UniProtKB/TrEMBL annotation:
Record's protein name: Octanoyltransferase
Domain BPL/LPL catalytic: 32-207
PROSITE patterns membership: BPL_LPL_CATALYTIC, LIPB
E.C. code: 2.3.1.181
Family that this chain belongs to: Belongs to the LipB family.
Gene responsible for this protein: lipB
Family annotation (HAMAP family): LipB
GO molecular function: lipoyl(octanoyl) transferase activity
Species: Buchnera aphidicola (Brachycaudus cardui)
Alphabetical list of Pfam families matching this protein: LplA-B_cat
Positions annotated to bind substrate: R71, G72, G73, Q74, I75, T76, Y77, H78, S138, L139, G140, G151, L152, A153
Length: 212
């Protein structure tokens, strides 16, 4: 039964550090009997540097905090209007490797965008999802105790300006885009609803909302 259910939480708008602390505590305290969870959250404005990024000895960029993250990948920006999805999945139990999880993450985003009549694709050797060569979704994962942490960040309806202060994902050529640029009527709630449906399909599970 456990393998057919994944709980999901809607954390609303939350400080990045608070969410990450809760995520790490969840992974450290979980046992064989713990159900997998997927968290939906928006973050207050923040830059996060992944483990592959050469760390900058600064605390702010244009008054926005910059912090180190224990995920893979380079530097990115989080802010209100971006749907962040954290995957707290026991990969060993589900017989999924990290490459397969990345493929699933990219697929559910592409399928969600397709639902809204937005055509998206992946780029070779560039994790994430793109539209017309512009990036709309970034990925970053870490594996701890056989379980995944972190996940994806899908730009929905946000201020993209802070992305211009950095080289997103460490690539000077990457430009960012968002769902709003293609359909301004689509909300975070609309996006979240379809993402949940696609997660149910591609992970072959029943998604059940968990109370906070």
């Amino acid at each position: 039964m456990k393998n057919k259910i994944i709980f999901f939480r809607d954390l609303g708008l939350e400080q990045w550090s608070k969410t990450v602390n809760k995520m790490n505590n969840f992974i450290l305290s979980r046992s064989f009997y713990t159900f997998d969870e997927i968290w939906f959250v928006e973050h207050y404005a923040i830059f996060t540097q992944g483990q592959n990024h050469q760390k900058d000895n600064i605390d702010f960029i244009h008054n926005i905090p910059i912090v180190n993250a224990d995920r893979g990948g380079q530097i990115t920006y989080h802010g209100p209007g971006q749907q962040v999805v954290y995957f707290l999945i026991d990969l060993k139990y589900r017989k999924i490797n990290i490459r397969q999880l990345i493929d699933i993450m990219q697929t559910i985003v592409i399928e969600t965008l397709h639902h809204f009549s937005i055509r998206a694709n992946i780029e070779k050797k560039k994790p994430g999802v793109y539209i017309n060569k512009k990036k709309i979704c970034s990925l970053g994962l870490r594996i701890k105790k056989g379980s995944s942490l972190h996940g994806l960040a899908l730009n929905v309806n946000m201020d993209l300006t802070p992305f211009t202060y950095i080289n997103p994902c460490g690539d000077i050529n990457i430009k960012m885009t968002q769902i709003k640029d293609f359909n301004s009527k689509i909300t975070l709630e609309d996006t979240r609803t379809i993402l949940i449906k696609k997660l149910s399909k591609f992970l072959d599970v029943i998604m059940i909302k968990k109370k906070q």
